[in-house]
Backbone:
């Protein structure tokens, strides 16, 4: 039988059929032999033989639904409608829940003019599977063939809602409704009218958005269609360069994009429709991030100052189902770096779907019910000033007003859905438990060897927690070890395809592959901690650079990262933070908006606490041996902990490159410096502070000043004003990242026979945002310069910026003060 099938697939149909017939003759009561002969007969078009053998096969295997369906099709093709109907009805008596057999029966009846019977058969199929798009489409097509256009339209529209990715079905529905108005038509902007009424340009303005429109229609499934229209007037060559390229992104597997308008309106009234298009993957391989998203760039080479550019495109979800159940969420920014004369965002939702939305100040919101049980939400604004970007300003969601909409009423709903989505993927498997227990065994063994108390069971060999759980010290040690494993033994690679843009891969896959993105690493970390009895929670996070968001509405649209929270230790862990210890939480996570997902209780919408200054500490110690010619030999040491430690580990990890890296680092402070030697602690030990020792040869540490030398004890250090407060004034708050503390101790040994001629005064000051202390003192024949600078808070409100800037200037002046030294006998000459 297999040989007969192989011959047929190879194109030797006749030989295959002969072999199948011979086999069936020899084994007339063997169903597989008879089935092969029937299949060969159908391939050769010998329908009589195929029907006979199919009847034999049904007699041998009365429950063979596939053969009965094939026989019914043969009979229907021969015009034996009654025989085909009898077979299908017999199949339904055997399996009343077979939807597709009911649809075959309904199709047969409809095709032979028996409309009422067909309707009953279709209704029976839909009663079994009301969300099956095939059932709605087949009944719609049958009714269309009977001339029942209105009934057919309703059926086909329902089928399209259930299967929006079908282009054939979409075209059929559109052909039945040639006069149907596109959902965006009542709101469309007239580019010529906007251009005629354009407001006067403001100074230093490169472009003006005359109108921006976004209309989104949401289906009951949460899938949506969005029409976007933009009308921009170009004012300068720089504005033309900025507007010349417009980019639209979409996921081809789940969405369709159509550019419906792309034209330039010239000042003389002519219209240029020509433009160039190119497409590229939106993946970022340099970050090891890969998406199923494509970016289409529209280019307008003819765009020039004075022109008006109009671009409009339609983006439609065409997937068979919503990746996130029936959820819909969207975050639309209102303000931009270009002034807007007009802004409108229209959201059309089924009346049965409640929408929860933010209420940005100055943005009008209107709501009304439209025909067809559709609710229109409309946000609009006029004359929106441009946002002037500033270095160090907060994230965009704190600077630009935005409309945030969601079908979720609370964070409880968000967390419940997300946990339902990921719970199977994050469940520890045997492989994950084994790896976690191996790590735990090593930690417990090391602690016993050190004589450290292990929770209530000093000599226990088990990696399971004792009754009552691990003590906090043991939990901390185990958590650090598991975290270090995830950070150092799994690479960051993001495969953001389909649902895996939201859902992690299974933790055993992540462990086996040794790579994953943020949610993969967070899931593995959580699963491994759970495996050894430590409670940890998944955390959805919105990175600090994107800006914080208020608590309402609740939505999945706002998050772009995932980390882990350990409640017992009040510890936040980022599995993607390469070169970081468990206490070195990246600055992008500090102060970020998060949702802590608690599987057994209420979630927590909160903000990750800022670090204390002493948690991000840097210490610099220099022993400087000055020579009479102004050169110096320096023995230095660094100790770095907290958020800056990963930067040092990464920069100085390769021993052969340390000297060159260090010379580059010191070149500004000490021009012409040469690094004589450098050593570092084990930089692979992520839980240890980074320590480094080095010796430098500085050719020009001090400059001649008469018979003596003059120098800055701290060298040409970075300007605090330049780093923290470069602008003379600010419109926006200043975000400086995590609080920190930096300590300097510089001891200067003078040339033999020299003395300190001029010693500057120190200085100190404190504010709510920063503090400093600088001291200069004699220590025998040596000079000691000591300083401490603390950034107390990571954010400075714009109203307090002038005082803060004055403080940074004071710090710079205190560090820049110079010391004069001279030979001891110089004063008496």
Residues:
């Amino acid at each position: 039988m297999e040989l007969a099938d192989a011959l047929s697939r190879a194109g030797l149909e006749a030989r295959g059929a002969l072999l199948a017939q011979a086999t069936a003759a020899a084994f007339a009561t063997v169903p597989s032999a008879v089935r092969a002969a029937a299949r060969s007969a159908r391939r050769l078009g010998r329908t009589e033989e195929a029907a006979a053998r199919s009847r034999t096969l049904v007699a041998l295997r009365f429950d063979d639904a596939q053969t009965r369906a094939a026989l019914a099709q043969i009979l229907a093709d021969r015009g034996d409608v009654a025989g085909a109907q009898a077979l299908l009805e017999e199949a339904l008596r055997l399996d009343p829940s077979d939807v597709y057999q009911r649809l075959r029966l309904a199709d047969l009846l409809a095709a032979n003019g028996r409309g009422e019977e067909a309707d009953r058969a279709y209704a029976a199929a839909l009663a079994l599977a009301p969300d099956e798009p095939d059932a709605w489409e087949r009944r719609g097509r049958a009714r269309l063939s009977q001339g029942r256009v209105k009934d057919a339209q309703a059926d086909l529209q329902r089928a399209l809602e259930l299967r929006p990715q079908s282009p054939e079905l979409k075209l059929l529905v559109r052909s039945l409704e040639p006069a149907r108005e596109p959902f965006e038509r009542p709101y469309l902007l007239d580019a010529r009218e906007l251009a005629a009424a354009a407001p006067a340009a403001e100074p230093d303005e490169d472009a003006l958005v005359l109108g921006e429109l976004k209309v989104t229609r949401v289906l009951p499934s949460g899938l949506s269609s969005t029409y976007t229209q933009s009308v921009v007037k170009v004012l300068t060559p720089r504005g033309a360069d900025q507007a010349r390229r417009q980019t639209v992104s979409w996921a081809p597997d789940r969405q369709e994009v159509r550019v419906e308008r792309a034209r330039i309106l010239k000042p003389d009234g002519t219209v240029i429709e020509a433009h160039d298009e190119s497409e590229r993957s939106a993946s970022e391989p340099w970050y090891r991030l890969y998406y199923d998203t494509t970016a289409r760039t529209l280019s307008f080479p003819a765009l020039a100052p004075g022109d008006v550019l109009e671009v409009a495109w339609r983006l439609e979800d065409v997937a068979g189902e919503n990746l996130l159940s029936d959820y819909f969420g969207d975050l639309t920014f209102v303000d931009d770096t270009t002034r807007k004369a007009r802004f409108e965002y229209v959201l059309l939702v089924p009346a049965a779907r409640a929408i929860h939305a933010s209420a940005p100040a100055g943005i009008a919101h209107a709501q009304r019910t439209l025909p067809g049980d559709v609710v229109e939400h409309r946000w609009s604004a006029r004359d929106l000033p441009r946002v002037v970007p500033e270095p160090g300003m907060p994230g965009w969601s704190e600077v630009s007003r935005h409309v945030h909409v969601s079908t979720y009423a609370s964070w409880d709903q968000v967390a419940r859905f997300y946990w339902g989505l990921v719970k199977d993927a994050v469940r520890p498997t045997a492989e994950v438990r084994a790896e976690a227990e191996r790590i735990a065994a090593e930690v417990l063994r090391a602690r016993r060897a050190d004589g450290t108390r292990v929770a209530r069971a000093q000599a226990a060999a088990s990696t399971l927690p004792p009754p009552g759980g691990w003590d906090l010290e043991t939990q901390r040690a185990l958590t650090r070890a598991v975290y270090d494993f995830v950070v150092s033994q799994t690479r960051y690679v993001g495969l953001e395809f389909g649902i895996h843009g939201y859902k992690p891969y299974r933790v055993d896959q992540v462990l086996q592959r040794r790579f994953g993105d943020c949610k993969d690493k967070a899931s593995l970390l959580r699963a491994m901690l759970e495996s050894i009895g430590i409670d940890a929670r998944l955390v959805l996070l919105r990175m600090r650079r994107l800006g914080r968001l208020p608590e309402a509405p609740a939505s999945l649209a706002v998050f772009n990262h995932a980390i882990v929270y350990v409640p017992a230790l009040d510890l936040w862990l980022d599995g993607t933070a390469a070169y970081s210890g468990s206490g070195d939480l990246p600055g992008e996570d500090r102060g970020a908006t998060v949702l802590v997902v608690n599987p057994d209780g209420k979630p927590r919408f909160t903000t990750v606490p800022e670090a204390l200054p002493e948690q991000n500490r840097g210490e610099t110690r220099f022993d400087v041996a000055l020579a009479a010619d102004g050169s110096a030999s320096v023995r230095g040491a660094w100790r770095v902990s907290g958020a800056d430690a990963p930067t040092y580990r990464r920069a100085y990890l390769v021993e052969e490159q340390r000297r060159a890296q260090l010379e580059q680092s010191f070149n500004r402070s000490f021009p012409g410096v040469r690094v004589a030697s450098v050593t570092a602690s084990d930089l692979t030990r992520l839980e240890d502070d980074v320590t480094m020792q080095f010796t430098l040869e500085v050719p020009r540490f001090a400059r001649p000043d008469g018979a003596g030398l003059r120098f800055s004890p701290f060298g040409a250090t970075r300007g605090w004003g330049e780093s923290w407060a470069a602008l003379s004034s600010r419109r926006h708050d200043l975000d400086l990242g995590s609080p920190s503390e930096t300590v300097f101790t510089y001891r200067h040994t003078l040339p033999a026979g020299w003395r300190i001629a001029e010693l500057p005064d120190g200085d100190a000051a404190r504010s709510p945002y920063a503090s400093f202390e600088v001291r200069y003192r004699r220590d025998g024949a040596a000079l000691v310069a000591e300083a401490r600078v603390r950034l107390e808070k990571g954010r400075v409100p714009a109203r307090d910026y002038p005082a803060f800037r004055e403080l940074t200037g004071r710090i710079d002046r205190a560090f820049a003060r110079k010391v004069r030294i001279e030979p001891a006998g110089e004063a008496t000459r």
